[in-house]
Amino acid sequence: MTVRTICAVYVYLGALGATFHTASYSWSLDINDCFLPCEESEWTSISPQAWLDKRKSISEPPIQFSTALAIIMSGQGASPLRLSIFGSYLTLHGIVKHLTSLYQDNWLIDSLPAHVQRIEESLTRWRMCAEQNPEFHCSPRYPSGVIAANALSLYRQAHVRLCGNFRPLRAALTTRNVQSITCRLNDIQINISSSRTCVKAAWCAIEALQISIVMGMAQAGSISGWHSKLLFNTYSLECCLFLSIWTREQSSLAISDRSSEENDILKTIQETLAEIDLDPAIASKPYSIQLVYAWSLIFKNSATIGLYGIIAEVLKSYADNLKG
C-alpha cells in the first residue's frame, strides 16, 4: 500500500471514529513508520518516481508520523514543527486517538485530570505547528482550504470532548433512527465548571457556530460544491450540545459570579445568534435553546449527506422539549 493511500485511509478511518465512535477498528491501521508529507506538491506527483524525486529535493528532512506525534504530545521539541497542511491533519487525528480512551479505560479514572491536561496542551502545540504553514486557512481560495477547515473543526471538537462523554450519542448515530438518537441525548455527560479547559471549550464551540454563519450555512440554498467536502457540521455536534448546556448553567448565575471571560462568551453568543434569522417565537426563548435551534437550521440547510438531515431533525426535537 502506498504512503498516500495509507495516510488517506488513516484520515478516513479517523473521521469515522470521530463521527460514529467506531474506535474498535478506526485506529487499527498503523502508520507510525510513515513519513509525513513536507510539501503539498508531493501529493500531486504523477508517478512514484516523481514523488521520490520531489522528496529528495526538499531541504528539510522528512519526519515520521510517530516522531511528529511524540514531539507534539511531549512538548520536547526545541521549536514548533513545520508540517504540511495534510501532515498537520494526520497528526491531529493521532492526538484525537487518545481521546477515545478518556472515559472508557478504568485505569484512567484516577489520572483523568492529568490526562485531560496532557491532551489539552498537545492540542495547543498542534495549533502552533499548523499555523506555521502560511496556507493554513479554511477558505476555498486556498488549494488545501477544505483540509484546513476539517482540521480546525476536529480541533474544536476535541477541546469540547475534554469536557464530556459523548460516546452514547455518537454510537447511536449509526442507527440513523431519529427516535433512537434523540433518546441517547439524555445519556451524554458534560462537566461544566469555571476551569480553563471548560472556558476554552466554550470559545471553541461558539467559534464553530460563527464559522458556519460566515460560510452561509445558516441560510437556505447556500450549499456549494466546496461545502459538500466539509466535515465541519459532523464535528460540530458536540459543540452545539456543550454550548447549550454551558449557556444554561452560566445564565443561572449572577454577572458577579461569572468571570469576565465567561461574560464575554455570553455576549458573543448573544451577538452571534442575532445574525441568524430565527423564527420570532424561537428568538424569544433562552439563548441555550436558541443555540440548538440554530444548529438544527445549519444542519438542515447544509444537508449534503443524509446524516445531516437526520441530525437536524434530532436537534429540533430536542430543542422543542427543552424547558425555557
Protein described:
By secondary structure, the protein is mostly helical. The chain has two domains: 1-136, no CATH class; 168-324, no CATH class. It contains 15 helices and two strands. It has helices at 3-20, 23-26, 48-56, 65-74, 85-97, 112-130, 145-161, 167-172, 178-184, 196-214, 232-251, 260-273, 280-283, 287-301, 306-320; strands at residues 164-165, 189-190. Strands 1-2 form a two-stranded antiparallel ribbon. Helix 10 (196-214) crosses helix 11 and helix 10 (196-214) runs parallel beside helix 12. The longest helix has 20 residues, at 232-251. The protein is globular, with a radius of gyration of 20 Å.
Can you count the helices? 15
Strand arrangement, major sheet: 1-2
What gap, in angstroms, lies between the N and C termini? 55 Å
Low-confidence stretches: none
> Rg from C-alpha positions?
20 Å
User: What is the tally of beta strands?
Assistant: 2
SS strand fraction:
under 5%
From N to C, what is the helix and strand string? Answer: HHHHHHHEHHEHHHHHH
Largest sheet: 2 strands, antiparallel
User: What does the oligomeric state look like here?
Assistant: single chain
Secondary-structure-based class equals: mainly alpha
Residue-averaged pLDDT = 85
What form results from the Cα inertia axes?
globular
Helix content: 55-70%
Give the total of domains.
Answer: 2
